Amino acid sequence: MRARPLTEIAPGVWTAVAQTWTSLTTIVVAPGGSCLVVDPGISVAEVESLAVSVHERGWRVVAGFSTHAHWDHLLWSSALGDVPRWATARAVAHAVRIRRDARVDAVNVAPGHELELLGRLTALPDGAAEVPWAGPRTLVVDHDGHSRGHAALVLPDTRVLLAGDMLSDLEIPLLDVDAADPLGDYRTGLDRLEEAVRTYDVRVVVPGHGHVGDTGELTRRFVADRAYLDDLEGVAGTAGRPRSTDPRLTLVPGPPAVLAPY
Description:
Blueprint: E1 7-10, E2 13-17, E3 24-29, E4 34-38, H1 44-56, E5 60-65, E6 85-87, H2 89-97, H3 99-109, E7 122-123, E8 139-143, E9 150-155, E10 160-164, H4 182-199, E11 204-207, H5 215-233
Parallel strand pairs: 4-5, 5-6, 6-7, 10-11
Antiparallel strand pairs: 1-2, 2-3, 3-4, 8-9, 9-10
Helix pairs in contact: 4-5
């Protein structure tokens, strides 16, 4: 199998783009070659070829991270190694609850995965502010905006934000409609991400689906996402309700929106 193409977006931070839903995988590599794999891919070929890329470069996977408990972020391969695969405690609990449905989705969309590895996650310690691995500092920014226990990661040494399934240039904000306050949770998530961007002077954003962006693009995405949420709230009444003109509505990089635009 061929190695999966990787692009270095910052020193020691590499990404790979999946054909399925323009999903992005990130590998954070320590100077000695140990690495952290974040959201490894969707199809079997994507995940397996990622392992080939890692091995060909002489790197060693020592940990994984799932940004949230949606099936396409819970996949793994034994070729990547038997290592801790971290997620927030709330994401781990959610992954356990949806495991059966997640396996069905994986079989339907990306058949052939080692289903016993799907969602086999390790909960971060209570109150953990960082991923516990020996590589570059990897800070955890958790919230419930897109999914319960969703977590972005900040790499302060390289000023990179791994945003999970938020701040995409292709995907509208997808809300957790099972939450008590989906819009409020999403706004809080954006606020937490923006605070981290300011605190650590983030210069590069990596979404879960879409394309890597610079500071200008990051600012634009915050504005676009908040405007879309405003559109969703709208004005009471069908006739007077504004319809969103967000151009991302014409693009379909990921699963169908769980909250349809008005």
